Amino acid sequence: MRDNIRALVEVATKAFELEGPVYEFGSFQVPRQQRIADLRTLFPGQPYVGCDMRPGPGVDRIEDLTDLSLADEIARTILCVETLEHVFDVKGAAAELIRVLAPGGTLLVTTPFDFSIHGYPSDYWRLTPVCLGRLFAPLEAVLVGWQGPEKHPHTVFALCSKAPLASRYVERAHRFTAAYTQCCRAAGGREPLPRKLKRWIWSCLGTRSERRRWREYHQVRIGLDESLEGARPSPSDVQPPSRARETVCQD
Known about the structure:
The protein is α/β, with parallel strands linked by helices. It has helices at residues 3-15, 34-37, 90-100, 129-135, 169-189, 193-205, 208-215; strands at residues 22-25, 48-52, 61-62, 75-81, 101-112, 141-147, 155-161, 220-223, 247-249.
């Protein structure tokens, strides 16, 4: 798991006030990643079940994501981070996640895009923002985002909600957008000096694609689905993006 993914989950947990029971699919904690991969600490006191296809650290249940043994609508919150690229039947997995999500529940999905081929145990797909939107279109609301250049994002994610939507859904969506935009901007400012120097060199001397990739690494775009276009949070909340469907941050 990458640092930006844990930060994304943490921001979403606070902005959407996520609650249990929480089911994490793909919860196996790879060696030397426990510090950032243990997402249970973000849900203190909440029922939390870690599911994966193999036993190990962080795993409470052995489950096949394309054929879950869980009852319908059992999970109030579902986390599926850095996992769908390892599932060959990705459409079947999406259908199962939708099935076990409780009414009014929230599903958070992340997947790498511009990233090396990796195991755990196999790596099949790179899913675009449009693909995530289509996979989870049966849900009531889908908030899709990505980080990095528009044509070569390094991370793609979706926050999906099942009907009925909470009365404060729009407010929470805008709160999440503002908070994660700020989080990405701050991450760029905290980069170690050697990485900043490397990014500066590539942004000056690399190919056009490489320059953009390094220059826009911390850029994030988040788009609301069309049913929420033009909606605004309450005055007590954060300022909404200047455009209804998209906000952009670039350090």
